[in-house]
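Would you kindly consider the sequence and fold I have copied below?
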Amino acid sequence: MSKNYIVENLKKQIGSFKSDAQAEKVGHVIEVFDGIAKISGLSDIKASEMVSFPNGEIGVTLNLEEDSIGVIILGDFSKIHEGDEVKAIGTILSVPVSDLQIGRVLNALGEPIDGKGAIKAVKSNPIEKVAPGVITRLSVSQAVQTGIKAIDALIPIGRGQRELIIGDRQTGKTAIVIDTILNQKGQDMICIYVSIGQKDSKLRKLQTRLEEGGAMDYTIIVSAGSSESAALSYIAPYTGVSIAEYFMDQGKDVLIIYDDLSKHAVAYREISLLLRRPPGREAFPGDVFYLHSRLLERACRRNKEYGGGSITALPIVETQSGDVTAYIPTNVISITDGQIFLETDLFYKGIRPAVNVGLSVSRVGSNAQIKAMKKVSGTLKLDLAQFRELEAFAQFGSDLDEGTKSQLERGKRAVEVLKQPQYAPVATEDQVVTLYALTKGFMDDVAIDKIKSFEEGLTEYARKNAKTFYKEVIEAKMWTDAGEQELVKVIGEYKSSFVK
């Protein structure tokens, strides 16, 4: 073999050589404990950027310090050791989003955990995103019908609103949101339920209830269970809203429930204290307000130029002994567009849902109600507030004038009408009929213990015999004089046959 041939061959090989070398940012674990890792060497990493560990676990950068970074580990930290090599992935934490997620149960990273197989997602959304600006938003004017009379009539919720549900434990907060999800059947609304720090048994019961009601056909459950790390509880709500934004970008309406933000704040406090961040009031870090504001501000109603669609948020916050002046409740009250306050005393009196009408408010007001509902519920809140005052006053004396007595009797009947069993949402048109009969005085001479049976019988009878009225309320959202005359006649007929 000639010398020239060897030289030519070497030249060819050198010419065809391609380097596959890639630059990687690499650091090392200084210490690891309780789901937190301190890492040195990654000096140019960004906040919320992902890192990978040798055992395949992923972490997210939270603290950027002078000589090290603080990372929360999204998985099992027991296999990570001091000295392990850590690589920067170069991307912000994102979650997969897809239409196929509807009807599924996902973990805090958007991966299915219901045993029904993998979900092929072609797109991913970052979990942190700047909320839509004022120019892109539309004012709230379209109702979210919860099917709960006390809420739809007195504290209406609109598409794009953020309405806080607040109360002590075991007062029916989750029951309200389950009823709301069940009532969205046929309302063209996708529901996302984010479970934060709940027991797995509670989640399974909730899933079964939604499946029985046919609600899983339009619902996604995102779960970070009580047995999982604080890091996953912290990320879960952001995962939920990222999935919600995917559907909003398609012009769809989404209802998202955070159950509950008290546990979310506690998880964030745990992470912050482990990362040695300075504690503030109630040992929460200084940015705990921003934690929830940047989450809830992402709920909005977009105008047509920016694709339409909306995200309605129902965050839940648990109070201790009804104290709404605690740190997290006051924070979330100031971020949201109103609150539904559930009171323990009312719950134990048998008034369920235990909504305290005096402390509950919707800052959207009657803008989110259909005209028919606005008309029948106009005086109801005032009647109930006056009834509460008179009820306290009437305990001191029996000599009451006729006007006061009739107001008390009307108030008692209003309280009875607004009672509602769990998992039994009421259609809007049925609510309108019931509240019309109440506010126009048709129930004033019905015995209080017969109000429930009167109401049930009336709606059933009116559906069959007041078809014009029902058609007008369903289609035009308001009745005509002819429709009202028909309803008055039907109520009169039913009342004459009702055994008082």
